[in-house]
Input
Amino acid sequence: MYVGQSVKRKEDLKFITGSGRYIDDVEYPGTLYLYIVRSNVAHAKIKKIDVSDALKTNGVVGVITGLTIPFENRPNNWPMAKDEILYVGHPIAAILATDRYTAADAADSVQIDYEELPAVIDPEKALKDDVKAVEGRSNIAYKKVYNAGDPDKALSNSDIVLEEKFEISRVYPSPMETRGLLSVYQEGSLLVYASTQSAHYMRRYLLSAFGNKIRDIRVIQADVGGAFGAKLFPYAEDFITVYASLQYKKPVKWVALRSEDIRGMYHGRGQIHKVKFGAKKDGTLTAVIGDAIIDLGAASHGTYLVDIAATMLAGPYKVRDLRINAYGVYTNKTPLDQYRGAGRPEAAFVYERIMDIISDELKLDPIAVRKKNLVTELPYTNPLGLKYDSGNYLKLLEKAEKVYREFEERANELRKQGRRVGAGLSFYLEQNNFGPWESASVRIKADGKVQVIIGASPHGQGAETGIAQIVADELGISVDDVEVIWGDTALIGEGFGTYGSRSLTLAGNAALLAARRVKDKVLRLAAQFMKSDVQELQYKDGKVINPKTGKTMSLKEVASRNMASLGGIWEYKEEPGLEATGYFGFDNLTYPYGSHVVLAEVDNSGKVKVLDYYAIDDIGTVVNPMLAEAQVIGGVIQGFGESVLEEIVYDENGNLLTGNLFDYAIPTAVEAFNIKWEYMEEGKSDAPLPAKGIGEGATIGTPPALIRAIEKAIGKKLTRLPGRLEDLI
Ligand code: MCN
Ligand code: MO
Output
């Protein structure tokens, strides 16, 4: 059995030997390079754009301005600012040239005559709706009230009532590879190479804009150097690049510079939660009433993230009286969308801060307060209707508690030496396997090797190895004989992609179903080849066996016999070919859960050092513990960044102050630390292979645990992410 084993990653050789193929490695003769001229003011009326000098530049082929495409959730000035600039970085013109340097140089000669408008940057000010972020529109792009029970009554019946404002700043998802696209014009159709999380989805949205101009668009996902949620949804530059290649009938390439990526890639998080909450003397959380404000930036497609945060705000706890007023407000900033965790980290920061603040206020042990409130009977329907599926929360918390007690003791010892050290624990609930379904085809080739083509599109996680393990087990063959392929809309009918920690569970189960179907075909064909009755045959360890006669045929033999000989006839009574497609989707999301425990030290300059780290998760069946652990390690380090280093900062006029990786600090190997990870397998999903996702969990569990450890180290309450240096001195 491969499932449960730490099989080495199948996909790494090409990357570590430098033969990966990212967008910028894909070359087509005659390619034009696109450079985007962007706004450097936050809000303005465009009076005139003069591109005549740019057009005179040697090597410049054309300049595009004023391209607008009506598109869901985007304001009128999309993908290009035509009359109104909405944020610093908003595309205004696109220069096409025979090389990228010429295109970039010509950008300086584009003259933009504009009249500045007042900008609204602070989401709480935006909520007042005095200064408009988009002319003629209310800033309140979205409002929804989530109500359960009688929170006012529950609050008035509480022993204590507290009030806090929790802030989760904006972050830049910071993949190693910036975004990029190569659109190759082929009379009547397009071939698009993209750094994306979903080739199929990109095909669908590009066709919705250009389908009347073109027969078809084939999208191929190039190797992707990280995405973290930010390469899923449509971007202005995708449309501009494709438009340019259609207009000029040429291959057109656009690859973002890092400074463009920080302005152009959708930022993540950006939520403010102003909450009132109550508790009984014993630590029971009685009610939560609050406003959840999401800072959408200059488009409204990020609203679903405040819905996720609001509906998850009770977390793994039993509180049943809640009211959350969710707001989505426009601001003159880069549009916001999902970043690894997408709404669940924001919720976890709020409910875990609430647990710690209640325990401090009542002088109770923070673990005891969590135990008092924890959901213990599963399945459980939370007050806002989410169905928590399976697991044993208390058991996992008790395992984490042991580590926490030890860290607490170590912190006490070190504090005696005058060091600022603290221990923190978080318990979190994850929600994943966002649907609706995923597809996979399994093909057995003539040489007996197996190809699995999945609709999901991994980009670093390692799903290809995990899914190969599942199929190898089902077919009883070596994992080396299974190849997993994805990311080409011409290879598989339909699919969705990689997001919401879904690939292993949904595509893996689709592959499992497909493999079972193929096995059935193998048996039926083998019955013909072996002149047996199919009922007599069994499939075991990659072989078809007839227990009566003792005859066997390996998968490889069946596959090659199926190919007969060239020019021969097909004398059998079964349809030839060994291929099947499977589809899998859940009727409910899955809810993994976990706990993180941190021992951290803060030096006198405010610098945070993690001395020890422990994480535990329950995601049902773990297919490959090494891959799952790698996801946890990466997520913890990102969570560390979000907690103490990373923050997108704008000044009051909307100038981006963190516009490069010098000013926007991401964690590096220097800040990394050892992380011990364990898992439990009690919270199974109801899929044939009862797994749940692990791709995002650690970004949810880390910030509340780390912020708690820091808070204990410095003896000061912390309510914002990141903890800024000036707060930690
Ligand atoms: N796995 C497993 N057993 C399980 C579940 C998963 O062994 N029960 C393994 C899988 O084989 C896979 C990995 O864990 O190698 C993650 O699988 P899964 O939880 O299904 O998540 P996805 O593959 O769908 O990945 C998406 C998730 C998301 S939503 C973001 S955002 C994110 C993340 O993955 N972006 C990443 N991790 C990332 N890792 C890298 N390197 N780059 C990104 O952009
Ligand atoms: Mo994601």
The pocket of pterin cytosine dinucleotide (ligand 1) is lined by residues 226-229, 340, 458-463, 466, 498-505, 619, 621-624, 627-628, 631, 634, 691-696 (CB under 6 Å).
